[in-house]
Amino acid sequence: MHADIVVLPGDGIGPEIVSATLPVLETIARRHGHAFAFREHDIGGIAIDRHGEPLPATTLEAAKQADAVLLGAVGGPKWSDPNAKVRPEQGLLAIRKGLGLFANLRPVRPHPAALGASPIKPELLEGVDIVVVRELTGGIYFGDKTRSDTDATDLCRYTVAEIERVVRSAATLARSRRGHLTSVDKANVLETSRLWRDVTTRVMREEFADVTVEHQLVDSMAMHLLSKPRAYDVVVTENMFGDILTDEASMLAGSLGLLASASLGAGKVGIYEPIHGSAPDIAGKGIANPYATILSAALLLRHSLGLEEEAQAVEHAVDRALDDRVFTADLAAPGQAVSTADAAQAVIDRLGA
Ligand code: NAD
Ligand code: IPM
Ligand code: MN
């Protein structure tokens, strides 16, 4: 097949992990007889520097026309003044919203060889296989904001339709897995959470009677996620809770550098990006873990291009690199780390003939 893939390297380690990932996709294309055209555009801090805005219209337009978007990360100290007029992160929020990508899938499946990198006891991690479905275009991220000399506000708003569609996505996914959905909210305090719980309960009763649903308050969920991670199959939650819980969940896998994501909407185009950020503390050193981005490319093959066999080939190759303890510095024992480029090459070497 032919596919147009918009590539948005962004800032910090973004360009390093994206340029490590493109050869993986090129190898897949060559081996499986596909033609992928990569079109690079600016987003985030680099777009502010070059165009004066974090999401130039040309970038959004290209993404709308593409089959899929592969993104590195945005942001960094250069653009982080709390009084700055524009921030790189606004570009990321705007492209998610502009493409209507309301469901952000974040799989968490600790690899046996990396269990030692997790601060959690290995016996709690065996068999853990969770997908967090984070609502991505609503809630406090997108409500009206105000700021004066004496106060500031962020409005958190959800509509019934916004909750219904993400719950349907999560429940459909749960149905294809172990048939269990955990909905996370703060219904003991927040009105948006009480609406979330009501709508979730109704949608599950009316449309997903075959999927079991449990409701969990976000504060105790943050604890249960570490104390009994095997109890979870699909977890659905609102935008900010999902952001926080998935960085926490990355510690089950051993590193933020292992968690991939797919941002999906009603159309075919999706954004595929690691859940981590631009890692300014290690940027430019060639030591970032590229696996989260490579695994995001696997999700791209699966969800936007419908290439399941190719997606699995990439996932198996990453698994085999981890089996062989090809670890970047975030996972490796002292003195054992490989570079970003070497880790990506190890995946390519394991893609099979
Ligand atoms: P971060 O995720 O960038 O980094 C947190 C820690 O994890 C750092 O110590 C970093 O070195 C490490 N880390 C992250 N990715 C890694 C990788 N692939 N390999 C090895 N180590 C890795 O979070 P932060 O420091 O809080 O944020 C830095 C900037 O990134 C901020 O401007 C933030 O807004 C932005 N950010 C962007 C995205 C995105 O573009 N999707 C996501 C999160 C944060
Ligand atoms: C993420 C990031 C973003 C978010 C920021 C950079 C806007 O933390 O993708 O998890 O909060 O959604
Ligand atoms: Mn985040």
Tell me briefly what this model is.
This protein is an alpha/beta fold. It contains twelve helices and twelve strands. The protein folds into two domains: 1-105 and 257-353, Isopropylmalate Dehydrogenase (3-Layer(aba) Sandwich), CATH 3.40.718.10; 119-253, Isopropylmalate Dehydrogenase.
Structural class, judged by helices and strands? alpha/beta
Number of strands: 12
Rg of Cα set: 20 Å
The low-confidence parts are: none
Rough outline: globular
**Beta-strand fraction estimate:** 15-25%
Instruction: State the major sheet.
Output: 10 strands, mixed
Strand order of the largest sheet: 2-1-3-12-11-4-5-10-8-9
Structural key phrases:
two-stranded antiparallel ribbon, Isopropylmalate Dehydrogenase, binds 3-isopropylmalic acid, binds nicotinamide-adenine-dinucleotide, binds manganese (II) ion, 353 residues, 17% strand, alpha/beta, single chain, 12 helices, globular
Structural account:
It contains 12 helices and 12 strands. With 353 residues, the chain is α/β, with parallel strands linked by helices. It folds into 2 domains: 1-105 and 257-353, 3-Layer(aba) Sandwich (Isopropylmalate Dehydrogenase); 119-253, 3-Layer(aba) Sandwich (Isopropylmalate Dehydrogenase). The strands form 2 sheets. A 10-stranded mixed beta sheet has the order 2-1-3-12-11-4-5-10-8-9, with helices on both faces. Strands 6-7 form a two-stranded antiparallel ribbon. A hairpin with a 4-residue loop joins strand 6 (145-147) and strand 7 (152-154). Helix 1 (14-32) packs across helix 10 (291-303), helix 1 (14-32) runs parallel beside helix 12 and helix 11 packs across helix 12. The chain is globular and about 50 Å long. The mean pLDDT is 98. Residues 75, 89, 92-93, 243, 275, 277 line the site of 3-isopropylmalic acid. Its EC number is 1.1.1.85. One of its GO terms (molecular function) is NAD binding. It catalyses: (2R,3S)-3-isopropylmalate + NAD(+) = 4-methyl-2-oxopentanoate + CO2 + NADH. The record marks 141, 186 as: Important for catalysis.
